[in-house]
């Protein structure tokens, strides 16, 4: 069973930065895609950024160059560096891992970490 533990959330002023980290219980070489999602009350969870097992990143349009996702396979950690944070970035941020078991895809989620951006 893959477990993900997020850290790095907190309270930051608009324009500030946070670095989120997600530690996996397995090597990232065993996972296909790692990603960060976020969710606010009353809204569906949305993708922030993800990165494939060959290191190809993808970002949501609202990122606008402010965030950088990195994956240290064959290590165990994926990170999201968030700069120029704005109040609308306030959300619970979740780490996500997509892998395969016996050829069947699966998703694993972390517990989430709160990011609050004050104006």
Describe this structure in words.
By secondary structure, the chain is mostly beta strands. It contains no helices and 11 strands. It is globular. The chain starts with a strand and ends with a strand.
Please describe the structure with a list of short key phrases separated by commas or semicolons.
mainly beta, 119 residues, four-stranded antiparallel sheet, seven-stranded mixed sheet, 11 strands
Instruction: Detail the poorly predicted runs.
Output: none
Largest sheet: 7 strands, mixed
Q: Which percent bin holds the helix content?
A: under 10%
Mean pLDDT: 95
Classify the beta-strand content into a percent band. over 45%
Q: Order of SSEs, N→C?
A: EEEEEEEEEEE
Shape: globular
Total number of helices? 0
N/C terminus separation: 40 Å
Backbone CA Rg: 14 Å
Count of individual beta strands:
11
Broad structural category: mainly beta
In brief:
The protein is mostly beta strands. It has strands at residues 4-7, 10-13, 18-24, 33-39, 46-52, 57-59, 67-71, 77-82, 91-101, 104-109, 113-118.
Can you lay out the helices and strands and say which pair or pack?
Elements: E1 4-7, E2 10-13, E3 18-24, E4 33-39, E5 46-52, E6 57-59, E7 67-71, E8 77-82, E9 91-101, E10 104-109, E11 113-118
Parallel strand pairs: 2-11
Antiparallel strand pairs: 1-3, 3-8, 4-5, 4-9, 5-6, 7-8, 9-10, 9-11
């Amino acid at each position: 069973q893959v477990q993900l533990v997020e850290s790095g959330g907190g309270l930051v002023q608009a324009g500030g930065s946070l670095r989120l980290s997600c530690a996996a219980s397995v090597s990232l070489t065993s996972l296909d895609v790692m990603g960060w999602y976020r969710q606010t009350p009353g809204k569906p969870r949305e993708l922030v950024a993800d990165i494939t097992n060959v290191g190809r990143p993808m970002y949501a349009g609202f990122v606008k160059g402010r965030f950088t996702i990195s994956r240290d396979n064959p290590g165990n950690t994926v990170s999201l560096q968030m700069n120029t944070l704005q109040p609308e970035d306030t959300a619970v941020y979740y780490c996500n891992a997509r892998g395969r078991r016996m050829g069947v895809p699966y998703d694993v989620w972390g517990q989430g970490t709160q990011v609050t951006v004050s104006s």
